[in-house]
Amino acid sequence: MTRQDPYTELDLTISDHAQEWRHRARVFAREHATPTGHRLDRMTAAEAVEAGSPYFEFMAEARKAGFLTLTAPAEFGGIGLTRLEEFLVFEELATGDAGLATSLFLAPLAFQFVCNFGSPRLVDELSRPYFTGERPSWSSCFAITDPHHGSDMMAAHTPALTVGGGDTTAHLDGDEWVLNGSKAEWTSCALTASHALVCCTLDHDSLAKGGIFVVPLDTAGVTRGEPLDKLGLRALNQGGLAFTDVRLPKEYLLIGEQAYATAMHATHALASVSMALLAFGTGRAAYEGALSYTGHRVQGGKPLREHQSVQLRLFRMFSRLEAARALNRAVYTHNYGLADVGDLGSIAHAAASKVFTTDAAFEVCSLAIQLCGARATRREGVELPGGDVFYPEKLLRDAQSFKLADGENDLLALVGAAHLR
Known about the structure:
Layout: H1 16-42, H2 45-48, H3 54-65, H4 83-96, H5 98-106, H6 109-117, H7 120-132, E1 140-143, E2 168-173, E3 176-188, E4 195-201, E5 210-216, E6 222-224, E7 238-249, E8 253-255, H8 257-296, E9 298-299, E10 302-303, H9 308-340, H10 347-372, E11 382-383, E12 389-390, H11 392-402, H12 409-418
Parallel strand pairs: 1-4
Antiparallel strand pairs: 2-3, 3-7, 4-5, 5-8, 6-7, 9-10, 11-12
Helix pairs in contact: 1-3, 1-4, 4-5, 4-8, 5-8, 6-7, 8-9, 8-10, 8-11, 9-10, 10-11, 10-12
């Protein structure tokens, strides 16, 4: 009999509450994320963000199911998951579709930043309506990268960074900040978000001298670029943002120049391991699909899984994924746990997690295509027992994109090496 959930939980301390939420996420991923991700993958970049796109229906269903407010503060109805339990839920969502899981991960980010660093008035204006559901259509994006300072931004937490300038700048004019410039076209969710966290240069001498603003994207002077047409992660919309004399109240600056380097260190310590978690889902989906397919596909008079060459490749996939999962969990809970108490996580470990996991996921997706043969190259996917379908070709493209997301892997390895002590 084919196993539908080839997954063994090694941590016996996980609460029943977390197990329940993980099960909800697994069902939601299979019923909503996987089919929606496939539909969006087949659409043009413009169609995927037009009114009526299945993306918006998916996000509405995710809010109803509670996946847009998993990390809500207790005063706004938070469900009280630990960081490890949060990890388990997002792993399931990413296994359904990693691009859509990235959208779910980013949706509350600006409103969480406001809770952590904003004034009480700003919390009431922005965070409360989002988390309590008064504004169900709100979501956020994080605009870090500049068009001409991609890799440079990965080291903006380093006070010694000598790269000057920045494509997005801000200056104080009386009681208002004025923003000008642009952010790179691969800003995730820029085309569907209502609010953005925007990194701006405050001093042209160094990228390390900046600030992080919360920007309602309906503010006068904000424009969005064209949807980015790309190889993988097509379910995750990306595009640029431009700012022309955008005026914001003083309090919309959440992180100022004095705290910016520290904030960027914390951001990258969390971003890299978060990308690793999301990328892991592509590998897990490919492994589970290949395991199911090889269990029922007969070649040479017996199921593929009974051939030793297939068994060796399946075990290679299993071993790489289990190693990646163990590393990801440890770094995720460590770095987020430190962030929760105002401390800084390890960039070296976060970089290791992202590089190792995305390399492993890409290898696993490649092996899944080999195991499923020519069928795996079809965009219609591979049919599994029970009528389920998985999409090895799409997963391979998504896995390739994760090797570049939030820092190309060789660059991240060098950033990690610079933090070895």
